[in-house]
Design a protein that fits this description.
Helix 7 runs parallel beside helix 21 and helix 11 packs across helix 17. The strands form 4 sheets. This protein has a 7-stranded mixed sheet with strand order 2-3-4-1-7-8-9. Strands 10-11-14-13-12-16 form a 6-stranded antiparallel β-barrel. It has 630 residues and is an alpha+beta fold.
Amino acid sequence: MQSNQFYRLFIAEKPSLARAIADVLPKPHQKGNGFIKASNGDIVSWCIGHLLEQATPEAYDQRYKKWTIADLPIVPEKWLLTPKSSTEKQFNILVDLIKSAGQIVHAGDPDREGQLLVDEVLNYCQLLPEKRKTIQRCLISDLNASAVEKSLEQLRSNQDFIPLSTSALARARADWLYGINMSRLCTIAGQRNGYRGVLSIGRVQTPVLGLVVRRDLDIEQFVPKSFYEVYAVLETKHKEIFKAKWQPSEACSPYQDEEGRILVKKLAENVCQRIKNQTGIIDKVSNKKKELAPPLPFNLSALQIEMAKKNGLSAQEVLDICQSLYEKHKLITYPRSDCRFLPQDHLKQINGVKSAIENNCPQLQTAVDNADFTLRSKAWNDKKVEAHHAIIPTLRKVTMSNLSDHEQSVYQVIATQYLAQFYTAYKYAELQIDVDIEGGKFIAKANQMLDEGWKVLFSTKNSQNEGELESSENSPLLTKLVKKGDSVQCIDAELVDKQTVPPRPFTDATLLSAMTGIARFVKDPEVKKILRETDGLGTEATRAGIIELLFKRQFLTRQGKSIRSTQVGRNLILSIPETMSMPDMTAHWELQLDQISKKEFSYQEFMCQLNSSLVNLVEQLRNSRLNIQS
């Protein structure tokens, strides 16, 4: 396509990124068909997401057009990728440019999918080994000109990112193998029982559906139980009154549930009678000063959870808004980040970001004025930053009236979280008084705020005033503290009759929280232990799409803010082996994919384990008849 055989070719993930790169290259520019040429001969072209897709089963063998269990599992010996029909024109343009380029710069997004989608095009072109070794990698997480220029000055060898690409490749092939084989298997089993639709199965989507179905069943099958709490109303020698809650002893265990709640009313009534009008002795007084550091800047999931709580936005809506703030308005850094830390190098931009926030969010002027920009929170940590960092505002100043209300709201939330890094810790005193009354133990707890610190940024009209005491039991509190050995008089005893409540239905916020903290829902104690640090069902880039897909396939439905399972979704989960709907397997996969990206686990081991599990599942379901009728 080009006569200049030694031009440098930048391959961006999307046209918006390509334009941002071209903007910092020498002008004038020449716009070509699917590329932009700079005056120095450099060319910028782009993908449009994945230009290649996994071939369908029938591309491997025509007999796979017909769905039969006898053919399962389908495992390709040699994997095939085919150009997407919708973007084939751009694909062909890019292939021609790659073949004739003297130097190639991979400028996919800074995550494993961004790495793979450009690498797979380069692999398709079957470049000579010598040329492959010269490919460079450009990591861009901010589309503003100064940030892009800086990224172009810090190019790395693309060879450094082979493990990340391998991890993404393993993920793509695992999803194909699991999705194709299990969807065919379950659809055939469902048809045996008269179900006419296709039953879509996915290694992430099915466990997510399983979370919702099990929560719905827990709610429906919930039987409320009465339980009882006892409070001693105590008077000090200073005539001040506070309440202390009874702590049942080991002797009471036959009358408690697994959470330690007293289920027998007569026992609680007996405690009330025993302590009323008796003298108690202060056994222990603890007054610990504690600090709470500012919350870290957002990654995508944390932001989606916050906006679901604050504005009722779905995960997909937040992702779309963030993409607009990043690509169109250039107001925030790369949004599909799973990192909540910032590189030390970003400290140089503090004043610029501060100035941008002042311009873009006048309502945050007081927050900016009261910030101490010499403070350094734990967010600044190079060791915690890999391909991308937390989502923060960029240096860009714009007229905010050009943004939608939701865009303005998301930007303000991101900016506020960034400013929190320049506020002191929230400081408070944690007070606990242990009282012995007639051999029974009673505890009163309260917190006293000492310094509001960063919490001033998030306070509401109902927040505590400085120095106010907050009791965990809603009891009156003391201004004159007691000490160990003091006596107190039990002037009354209160019996509180409570009932257990069912779990709440999932919402966008709590379902996302469950996906990011999946270890809570994992059964295997060993897997649970491993996943506490590296857990996550899906990735930052895929979670919103997975939830939306379950709605699209009519496995989930919305009831107000609640997310509930449909009858079809429920029947599917109840009809398949539990291992397919539990998060253990796929959460373990995510851990192994992360290990592949760090060269701690091999692609071959991962695929071997996957193929073995597919064979076992096919055997389990070979003769099944799934009851899916709604």
